[in-house]
Input
Amino acid sequence: MVLGPPVPTIKGLRVRLSRLRFVSVAVVPLVFLAACSSAKTEVKANPLDVVTVGGNAKAPSLALKTKPLSVKATTTKVVTAGTGAKLARTNAITFNYVLVNGKDGKQIESSFGKQAAGMDLSSASLLPGLSKGLTGQKLGSRLLVAIPPADAFGAQGNAQAGFGPKDTVLFLIDLVSASTPLTSAKGAAVPPKAGLPTATVVGGKPAVILVPKTAAPTKLVVQPLIKGAGPVVKAGQNIKVAYTGVLWKDGKKFDASADHGSAFDTQIGAGKVITGWDKGLVGQTVGSRILLVVPPAEGYGVKGSPPLIGAKGTLVFAVDILAII
Output
């Protein structure tokens, strides 16, 4: 992705309940009672039973009765069961969380008291354990999710986030809301101004963008091609988009989300992507398709972004806003 660094993403439920049936000694041979007794000893405790949730509603905290906490497979424990709909992998969700290193119980980060976080459960950039651990859970639930390295940061760990190659990632998660992102722009067509590039999107393929053989604009152009009826995008929110980018000088494609197999998630209006995106997408609505013509000053400047984007390169994007997450 050449737009700039994506928003750091938090890259996570299975509770097994065993019901034992008690029977009368007077009518059941002792051999069956022995079998029942044996079965009782085989019931395995959830490894998350060693985790205690403390603090308060605004600032919950986690404590480990034994350290380190280590799991071989993504494991979930329902702390408080919600009554909302079950999450599907196609959902984009908002949630609050506490992130802890299972090695020593150290709290790494918390969203409580801040803006709720957002993520797309189908995103290729998401920690596999989060998708595994949250799919099928009910909105309104409070969950503990423990993720082994294989479903988290892999054998290399994530030193920047404070996780070594063998550390289990532990989350406390409150599920707040869920939506199903669009697969493409949906809304009312908007006639573009004359002289601008045109964009055609078919299915999940990159947009076909045709650039006129004229001088490139020197200022940012923001032209809605489809006006969506969804909520307005605000600065600081995380959004899910499908995009195609080409060069004004020759119309050559340099990037497209479809080429990566999934839509792109980013925080908008916060300096995480090029300025042209921050200015052009904030204030638009979900469901919209936006044509952006981005001059160097709002893109990659006089140096460009070699080797794909040359010096003083003007960029043209077709961006479908699929969801706020």
